[in-house]
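Box 3.1. Reading complex inputs
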Amino acid sequence: MKSRLLLTFVLASFASLPACKKSAGTAGGTVELQNVSYDPTREFYADINTAFAKKWAADGKGEIKITQSHGGSGKQARAVVDGQPADVVTLALAGDIDVIAQKGQLLPADWQSKLADNSSPYTSTIVLVVRKGNPKGLKDWGDLTNNGIGVITPNPKTSGGARWNYLAAWAWAEKHYGGDQKQVLDYIKALFKNVPVLDAGARGSTTTFAQRKIGDVLISWENEAYLIEKEFPGETEIVYPSLSILAEPPVAVVEKNTEKNGTTAAARAYLEFLYTDEAQELAGKHFYRPRNAAILAKYSAKLTPIPLVTVDKDFGGWAKAQTTHFDDGGTFDQAYGTK
Amino acid sequence: MGKKRVIPGFGLSFGITVFWLGIIILIPLSALFIKAAGLGPGEWWKILTSARVLAAAKLTFGASAAAAAVSTVLGLLVAWVLVRYQFPGRRILDAIVDLPFALPTAVAGITLTSIYAPTGWIGKYLADMGIQGAYSPFGVFIALTFIGFPFVVRTVQPVMEDMGTELEEASAILGAGRWTTFRRVIFPVLIPALITGFTLAFARAIGEYGSVIFISGNLPMKTEILPLLIVAQLEQVKYEAAAVIASGMLLVSFFLLFLINLLQRRLNWQTR
């Protein structure tokens, strides 16, 4: 009896050993790619994948199958660090891919210089969405701190999109108050006093604003704002503020994974495809701002040109913006008086 | 182990028990504490006593206790109705009680939010009365009541079914009034089950994330719950800090559950 007991203990200790990793090889002839992306890109990449597979076959390279994974950008990055076999990542923030490079060592630290335009084949910005007819007369960031205005934005601690919103508002205030940090922080404080709900993610905020009809203004991704117009026709209007931020959602090949899977060439071709005219058109169709100036101009009736600050130039890069504003004790915590 | 039991196989069954508890509870939990041990006691203290964590802890444990208490009272009533009365639709009602178990918590959260938001069916009337339903601590309480309620019903119900009506009849024959019968005869029998139900509902509520984050509004210092702060730390890729909050939560929960167990033992002993 004792030996049987012992056996079970031995079994128990074996089970606790890390399981051997299985490599996701390529099935004969068909190349498989996994694209780990963030939430609002679902429809866009569905179109891209179809177009790319067609081109791949037309070039005589055979069949290619691309699987998608979507979720909050930060969560997706952690999943890749923890072993999700992504061949390419297409995330919301450069900071999230930095995490994969640093914590996971899955791609080189200079990944962002591997592709054109900071490895961001399309860009976006942050706009204001108001109720039809703009009943509260909200024209710019300054109006959001008026008395009795309900502002909807997600929690910057949990949402990548919310950090863009925050930095856009911050950039406007910094310019408006001539760089006086105390006044800027007071503005942010007043802004968040008007926020009745901080959803955990950007989609959550969209639902709160559009479906539950809470608040007077939603701070939102530009592409998401146009999606709301499509989903809730005649209920909202988009207001372009006097200043916003250039969001550059980056893409990268997860080299350590593709080397193992033998998919490096295909993954690179996939990301380079995003810069072709065909893909740039698709980006514009899905309300992302194409990098290609000629194609962007075609969509400029909707994607209004406005002055945009950048994280690199105006906030000293993502790492610095993260510690200054969003880490524990950062300006967001200060605005809420939690530190 | 020396004595022969009626049913043999202690060695094997004990082995499986230890093995199973090991892989699904002990190893993950030790991993959590090992991760948290990456930070020194000073860091632990700083994280656990920060204003934001304390406010979230107050809300999490407070709302969980309140929700479990209300679930206990209402659960007792519902179990009573289901066991003691025959009426059309009783079986359907009985099945409905289990729904919160089966429903994905995110669905529960979104549904409750749309109903209790100031624009929702019920939230509208609450707003007229000056009460904010969703996006307030009260909203957290609503969600936690929803998910905790079936635990109480399902633990009390079988005890009530076993109890039968003989005891009450005997009590009535011996001259006890209705209130005395309830207080002195029925209640003592039900108390252990009620406490178990309360404990389960309470424990479940403390860890609840999916439904609460939709209805709470996640305002720092006001409606943030502890599990959300853990996610916020993960979002900053601070695994250790997240593990510290989780460990702190676990220790407090363990302590509270241990106290409740102790109380239950004493009550059990008294009623015997």
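In summary: Residues 51-84 of chain B form the longest helix (34 residues).
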